Amino acid sequence: MPxxxxxxxxxxxxxxxxxxxxxxxxxxxxxxxxxxxxxxxALKPTYVHWKENGIHFTSVYRYEEAYxxxxxxxxxxxxxxxxxxxxxxxxxxxxxxxxHYVVVPAPSSSSKIDARGFDHLPAMFxxxxxxxxxxxxxxxxxxxxxxxxxxxxxxxxxxxxxxxxKIRGEKxxxxxxxFTTGATVRACLKLLQRLHPAKIEVLVLARVAKDRKRxxxxxxx
Length: 221
Hints:
By secondary structure, this protein is an alpha/beta fold. It is 28% helix and 20% strand. The protein is built from 9 helices and 7 strands; from the N terminus they run H-H-H-E-E-H-H-E-H-H-E-H-E-E-H-E. The strands form 2 sheets. Strands 1-2-7-6-3 form a 5-stranded mixed beta sheet. It has a two-stranded antiparallel ribbon with strand order 4-5. The longest helix has 12 residues. It starts with a helix and ends in a 14-residue tail after the last strand. The relative contact order is 0.17.
């Protein structure tokens, strides 16, 4: 009969494959099964807050090498096992901060979802314990990275509300993985506001830094 100690499986980081340490106060509070503390800190969690037209925006990470590599493995290579590596250590904080919100993900094209085998944003937020409600759809595989500055602004022409979408009187958290020009998020906001929510906030995992004058706050870590 195996001992109690041997029956406890060692958890390994799904990014670097090292064992996830459990003997620190941080790990006791912000427990994780997907990513070690070292890889999490390499993502440089630094909250950035700003407002646009009265709507509060928050980004979590810096759009730098560690995040770019991780999001490529997850989205580009379809590594579903990485789905919670981005936010798992932040779930306790996010559950409190957005406790009364419905999570609405920015849409992906059906062709991308089919090729990947999963819808990446709902999967990233499934561990948050909040309702994830898909209300938006991308009607064309419009890739912003292939467009110039003016072409990216046309992304709103390829996003629409799903039939029967309802959020009247509810608090909504619009989420996306990368904020570059903000064209996608703004197009989504415009559509969601037609449904008369009580409040909308935006949470993006990473924001491409262009304006260094934005107000920054250190991570809560």
